[in-house]
């Protein structure tokens, strides 16, 4: 036999034949399919998990108010985070486990395969799809099993409450807390974090000072909150470069200007200064402000200029505030006037 004949004969024996479609495995009935008693027990179990979810949400809210965070008290922080964590975990897991148990014990578990249509279905097919949805609703028992449906609604209603409480505490809800800071007439501008007062003669053209109000470093309570509102960037530019509004011309001193350090987008610290363009950049989302033109927004998502702090000098040559900011500091959505 020649080599070609041997190769041909060997290839004929190594032909790969397609494997037959094994099909779907035979459906195995669950106890809940066979017994209404087991189905009712499963329904109660699912509802119990949804109720646990609601209880978890209540625990989270209780923990938030029962153990308020106190600056310097680590035990209060631990208790607050522990109970809120336990509560939110129960709330989330209760919904998750309840939904999974519902699907595994009471919803149809027959495996089906359907071809996907590449174009709009016919009206008859769409009507049939609606009927299938109604049939699935009937088989799952969503409309029929009132106990599950009602407890699910309750769990979904309770679940976001802890988040609402927590997020509501991140910023002021009522009042004018962001319209007032520690800046007052005559308050000296001091270096952050040393608290050393700054003389106008110390500020050279192009230099940048991170500034806090005098007395902030001596506060025993709410120091971080006050600093978050009162932090200021102090910059000196050539007075001829400033495009000052005549009504605000007295707010600067010999080219020295002071602006809130808190970005008006989401509150990140604006800390990058480009001397040649007089641009201030927020590193979080690249909002850019023109320092020479009242910190107007020239790029990015910020909605309004940085608030300016009116400044002057006292008899000893130290830089002092003329007043507090005349508009709220921080993100625009905290401006209670809007």
User: What is the assigned CATH homologous superfamily of the largest domain?
Assistant: Rieske [2Fe-2S] iron-sulphur domain
Strand count, sense and barrel status of the largest sheet are: 4 strands, antiparallel
Name of the CATH first level of the largest domain: Mainly Beta
* pLDDT < 50 runs, ≥5 residues: none
CATH architecture of the largest domain: 3-layer Sandwich
* Secondary structure tally, helices: 8
The number of distinct β-strands equals: 10
Q: Kindly identify the CATH topology of the largest domain.
A: Rieske Iron-sulfur Protein
Main sheet: strand order: 1-2-3-4
Mean pLDDT over the full residue set? 86
**CA-CA gap between termini:** 96 Å
Q: What helical percentage do the residues reach?
A: 25-40%
The tally of domains stands at 2
Oligomer description: single chain
Structural class: alpha+beta
- Strand-residue proportion: 5-15%
How large is the radius of gyration?
34 Å
* Pattern of helices and strands: HHHHHHHEEHEEEEEEEE
C-alpha geometry: elongated
């Amino acid at each position: 036999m020649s080599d070609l004949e041997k190769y041909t004969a060997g290839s004929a024996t190594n032909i790969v034949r397609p494997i037959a479609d094994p099909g779907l495995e035979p459906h195995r009935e669950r106890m809940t399919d066979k017994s209404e008693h087991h189905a009712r027990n499963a329904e109660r179990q699912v509802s119990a998990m949804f109720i646990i979810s609601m209880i978890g949400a209540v625990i989270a809210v209780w923990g938030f108010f029962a153990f308020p965070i106190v600056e310097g008290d680590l035990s209060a922080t631990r208790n607050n985070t522990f109970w809120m964590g336990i509560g939110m975990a129960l709330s989330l897991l209760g919904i998750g486990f309840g939904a999974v148990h519902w699907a595994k014990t009471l919803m149809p578990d027959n495996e089906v395969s359907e071809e996907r249509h590449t174009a709009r279905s016919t009206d008859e097919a769409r009507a049939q799809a609606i009927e299938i949805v109604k049939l699935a609703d009937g088989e799952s028992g969503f409309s029929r099993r009132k106990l599950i449906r009602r407890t699910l609604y309750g769990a979904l209603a309770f679940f976001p409450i802890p988040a609402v409480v927590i997020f509501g505490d991140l910023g002021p809800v009522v009042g004018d807390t962001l319209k007032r800071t520690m800046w007052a007439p005559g308050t000296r501008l001091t270096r952050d974090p040393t608290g050393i007062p700054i003389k106008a003669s110390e500020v050279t053209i192009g230099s940048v000072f991170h500034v806090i109000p005098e007395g902030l470093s001596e506060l025993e309570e709410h120091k971080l909150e006050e600093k978050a509102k009162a932090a200021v960037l102090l910059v000196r530019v050539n007075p001829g470069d400033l495009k000052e509004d005549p009504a605000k011309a007295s707010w600067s001193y010999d080219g020295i200007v002071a602006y809130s350090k808190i970005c008006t987008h989401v509150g990140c610290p604006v800390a990058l200064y480009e001397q040649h363009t007089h641009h201030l950049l927020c590193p979080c989302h690249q909002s850019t402000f023109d320092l020479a033109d009242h910190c107007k927004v020239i790029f990015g998502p910020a909605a309004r200029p940085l608030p300016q702090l009116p400044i002057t000098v006292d008899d000893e040559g130290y830089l002092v505030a003329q007043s507090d900011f005349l508009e709220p500091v921080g993100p625009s959505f905290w401006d209670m006037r809007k």
